[in-house]
Amino acid sequence: MEAYINVMIFIFGIIFGSFFNVCIFRIPNNQSISNPPSHCYNCNTKLKPKDLIPILSWVFLKGKCSYCDSKISLRYPLIELLTGILFVLVYKVYGMNFIIINYLVLTSLLIIITFIDIDHYIIPDKIIIFGSLFAVIFNLTGKGISLLDSLAGAIICGGGMLLLINLIELIVKKEVMGGGDIKLFFMIGLFLGVKLGLLTILLSIYVGAIYGVIIIIYSNLKNIDYNSMIPYGPFISVGAFIAVICGTDIINWYMNLMI
């Protein structure tokens, strides 16, 4: 029975992952996510149901449009696969409880934000607004964290980062973090509250630092220049997801070290 549920959650995830691909492409271009229907962006042919089966369509079509043979990016099935895997991980931690809706929505938003930020170096306000409203409404149901913890998390994480970044930028005289990243911390604070929100900030710093070191070492080994302009949204998203999956365990482990 458990294996069956895992498979269903995975299928549920890859279906949503297919929709997320649409969001990632259209939202930053200010296009409707529902109209026009899915189509090939090269020949504009409307895609049929057989062309829209998550992961499998890409495999069967060998990564090409069945109408014009234009290449379909490998990223599309990878995002679908990633979404399916992350949905299963969330289910493994929270089970089939009402709270899982909260964390599946947050995970979904983090996936969309990550790839939009990678592509365009922006985090659209409409995603932050939707996520923030959802988090507040969900917590008002009494099934999530307390509304006080939610609002405190947003103020401390978002507001705290705003003050800190402004202070740093005042000292170094250049931008070190975009406004979208600060708004993302605000939204995550609403979802996760103070403790897990602050943990997200800490984890994002570690993830970003690890990535930076790897890129510098790789660039030096290959004797190539590296782009110092790195979108920070993906690091925040990874940190937030780690906090969702095992944040409480991390905090408890740390507290035990202090005793």
Describe what you observe in this structure.
The structure is a single chain. The protein is an all-alpha fold and 259 residues long. It is 71% helix and 0% strand. It has helices at 2-26, 56-60, 75-94, 99-120, 125-140, 147-172, 179-222, 233-258. Helix 6 packs across helix 7 (179-222). The mean pLDDT is 91.
Please tally the helical runs, counting DSSP H or I stretches of 4 or more residues. 8
Mean pLDDT: 91
Instruction: Give the biggest beta sheet.
Output: none
The radius of gyration computed from the alpha-carbon positions, rounded to a whole number of angstroms, is 20 Å
Sheet/helix structural class: mainly alpha
Helix-strand topology string: HHHHHHHH
Strand content: under 5%
Shape, per Cα inertia axes: globular
Q: Which consecutive residue ranges, at least 5 long each, have pLDDT under 50?
A: none
- Number of beta strands: 0
User: How far apart lie the N and C ends?
Assistant: 41 Å
Percent in helix: over 70%
Descriptive tags:
259 residues; mainly alpha; 8 helices; 0% strand
SSE blueprint:
Blueprint: H1 2-26, H2 56-60, H3 75-94, H4 99-120, H5 125-140, H6 147-172, H7 179-222, H8 233-258
Summary, kept brief:
The chain has 259 residues and is mainly alpha-helical. It has helices at 2-26, 56-60, 75-94, 99-120, 125-140, 147-172, 179-222, 233-258.
